[in-house]
Amino acid sequence: MRQRPALLIGLPLALLPLFGCTQFPALDATITPALEQADYPALVPLEPLLAEAQAPGIDEAQTRAGMENDIAALRARSAALRGPLLSPAERARLTAGRR
Questions:
Q1: How far apart are CA 61 and CA 68, in angstroms?
Q2: Burial readout 29-58 (b: 16 or more C-beta within 10 A, e: otherwise)
Q3: What is the pLDDT of residue 72?
Q4: 0.85 surpassed by pTM
Q5: Average pLDDT over the chain, rounded to whole?
Q6: Which of 23, 55, 73, 78 has its CA 20 to 30 A from that of 95?
Q7: Dihedral angle, C-alpha 17, 21, 22, 28, nearest 10 °
Q8: Are the C-beta atoms of 94 and 86 separated by less than 8 Å?
Q9: For the residues of 14-51, what is the DSSP string, one character each?
Q10: Cα dist. 61→37, 58, 65, 69 in Å?
Q11: What is the pLDDT of residues 14-39, one digit of tens each?
Q12: Dihedral of alpha carbons 19, 20, 23, 29, sign
């Protein structure tokens, strides 16, 4: 009974080195000759990129106004859909057609 826990721990530890033996894909063949001859990318200063990334991109007032316009348009559309689907003349014409 005492050997089961040791076996459960010892067996995975004994098999662990086998997981390190794997075939790596041939990555050297993925680089084209044109890419090998290409120049390195130009280095640019980091400060302008950081300043651009940290600049506020969302104007709260403009976003709020746009959302309020959208809400008003949706409410108007919803109110129009709540009305009767058929006018009284259309309803009378359909009712007359059933007879």
A1: 10
A2: eeeeeeeeeeeeeeeeeeeeeeeeeeeeee
A3: 97
A4: no
A5: 81
A6: 78
A7: 130
A8: yes
A9: HHHHHHT--PPP--GGGS-HHHHHSPPPPP--HHHHHH
A10: 51, 9, 6, 12
A11: 777 776 776 777 776 788 888 889 99
A12: positive
| Residue 66: pLDDT over 60 | yes
DSSP state of 86: S
Query: Quick one: tokens of 75?
Result: 């409410």
Is 60 in contact with 52 (CB distance < 8 Å)? no
Quote helix, strand, coil % in the chain, to nearest 5: 70, 0, 30
Does 7 score more than 70 pLDDT? no
How far is the C-alpha of 15 from the C-alpha of 8, rounded, in Å? 12
Assess whether pLDDT exceeds 60 at residue 1.
no
Question: Which tokens hold the place of 72?
Answer: 């008003």
